[in-house]
Each structure stands twice: as structure tokens, then as C-alpha cells.
Design a protein that fits this description.
Layout: H1 10-33, H2 35-41, H3 46-69, H4 74-95, H5 99-120, H6 124-146, H7 151-216, H8 226-243, E1 247-254, H9 257-264, H10 266-284, E2 289-294, E3 297-303, H11 307-328, E4 336-343, H12 353-382
Antiparallel strand pairs: 1-3, 1-4, 2-3
Helix pairs in contact: 1-3, 1-4, 2-3, 3-4, 4-5, 4-6, 5-7, 6-7, 9-10, 10-11
Amino acid sequence: MPPGNPGSDSESRRYCARLNYTFVMFAIAGLSCFLLFDYFEVPNAWQLLWAGRFLLIGICLLCVFLLRRNPQNPNGIVLFGAIASNLFFCFGAAMIDNVIALSLWNLSFATCMLIAMPAWLVWGWRYQLASSLPLIVFYIPIFTWLSPLQLTDLVGAGGAYLMTTLCIAPALAHARFSTFQRTVMLRLALEGRNAELNRVNQQLLTQQHELEYRANHDLLTSLPNRRFGLEFFEQVLLDSTRVRRCLSILFVDVDRLKHVNDSFGHAEGDHLIQLVAEGVAQAAGDQGMACRLGGDEFLVVLPGACDMASQQAATQLMRRLQERRLREGIAFPVDISIGRVTHDPVLQSDVDVDDLIQIADDRMYRQKRARRRAAAGLSDRQA
């Protein structure tokens, strides 16, 4: 971080610009308040002092505009106004011919520019020293040249206080700047730590979601696994019993999977499983769920589906699989056997999940055996 820059990030510069903007507005108010001082305490030169004050107010308004327009260099903008103010202070002090008025002038201006400024602004001792250079270089020469008073009058009229504050001001500015630097560094470190914690937390959440997904889904088909599917089935059955609504299930078994594995390879067998998985997922729709029970068996839960709707779902599932086989030119057979069960809580007694699955499993095997006998009879007739 550069010595005169309170913060390398834009947020620190904006904060510094807001502080400087507030201080310049405070300076404008202070300059306006001292117009009456000029008129009553410096009657022989109040016109010149007023002209200087109004010019200085204009410079401060320009600083305000620049701070609002371009807050990237707030300290340089305020330094311009501070140098102009100190030059005005040097010339204004030389216009005063009253020791008491000169004391008030020195005390008020020194308190504002050499105590309030370094305690308020965040710009480091170098900027503070640069803003005080007009006082250091020009104050005594201009006073000696233009003032009707003597240097001994200046010493008693706040000169000692002025010199003391000239020494104190850079130390105050350095202390303020160092505190601000540490604050910025701590804030940046805290933001970095928070970002790291957020990143780690996001990684943990991602890992948790992945673990939950792996725990609840079959990796080959991306369908819910047996545990997750049966939990859903059990909840749907409870809801169906409570509201007296029909419920249907399809117990799907892939035919001739072993033949596909042996004849076409296990990769094609996995492809067959995935094809059927996509089909049963489509058959389940938005309200239902399809899960892989294991191996070549799938379960489709159809909440609210009556017997006719389940029959239609089973027929569409088998038709879609055959259409896809023809459309994609799949060499191996894509055949399934389906056992359907519809439970109507109004007409039937209460059952559990295992009962319905067992009934569907029996019906599926009856369909499979019937198809085998039909295929065997067709072969005998052809022979």
C-alpha cells in the first residue's frame, strides 16, 4: 500500500472521499461563519478578506464537485483546497492590525487546519506536511512584508500555538492514517477469510448434495434407488388411504437381459437398462416416481391412477420402447414384462407396500410365463 494512499481497494477510496467531502462542507460552513469576523474585527481590509473567502469557498465547491465526480484521488483534491486555504491564511493574517484579532485568527485557523484536519482526514503525514508548506515557507515573510504589526506581536498573538500545531499535525495525521491502514488490512483479511469459508462451505454443500444423491439414486440409471423409491411409495400409500384415492403401481422386469449381456456385451446390457429406465421415468410423469429396485427390476408408482390409467401407462411404456428401438436401429431386443396393481381404498381393505409389490411381482411373472409359452407355441407351429 503506497504511503500516501489510505487503501488500495476502491471501497477504501470511496470511504476516504466521503470523509473528505464531509470535511470540505464543514470548511465551507466555517469560512462563511467568519465573514462577520472580517467585517467587525478587520474593518480596514474586510473587502479583501471577503474576496479571498468567496474565492476560497469557490475552490471548496470545486473540490466537492471533483470528489463527487471522481473519488479515485480524494486526498489530492483536498490537498489542492488545503494549500489554497493556507495561502489565504498567510495573506489574511498580514491584513490584521489588531493583536487580539490576530490571536483569534491564528487560534481558530490553526485549530481547524492543523488539528481538526489531520484528526478528521485519512491522508498520512506527507499530505499533511505538504498542505502546511505555505505556512512554513510564506507565513513569516508575508507577515513581515505586509503586516503593520511586529514579529514580537505575532509570537504573543497565537504564534507559539501555531508553531506547536505545525509540529503536532503530521503526527496526528500519521496516527489517523496508521489506524485506518490497520482497519483496512483487518477488513480485507476478514473478507478474505469469509470468502475462504464461503468457498469451503460451498464445497461441503456440494459434497453433501453429491453424497445425498448417491445415497438416494442409482448411478447407472440416475433413477431413485430401492430405498428412496420404497419410502416414496410408502408415503404415497398413506396419503392415498387417508384421502381415499386410487393408487397404481407397475412392476417392470427387463426380459432377456442375460441374453443381451452374453450376446452383445455388458455395455449393451447397461444400455438396455438405461433405455428402460428412461421409459419408466417418462411413464411415472410429474406426480409419480420410477425407481430401480435392483438388477433388471423397476417400480413405477402412479398416485391417483385408476386401473384404466395404469393399463394405459403400461401400454404406452411398451409402445415407446419399441418405437425407440426401431427409430434408433437397436440391434438387441428391448422387451419388458409388467405386473400392474391398482389399490382403491374405498373398495379394498388396507394393505401395505410389501403386499402390493408382491401382487405386482406375481402378475409380472405370470405375464412373462404367458409370453414364453406363446413364443414356444409359435415356434412349434412354425416347425
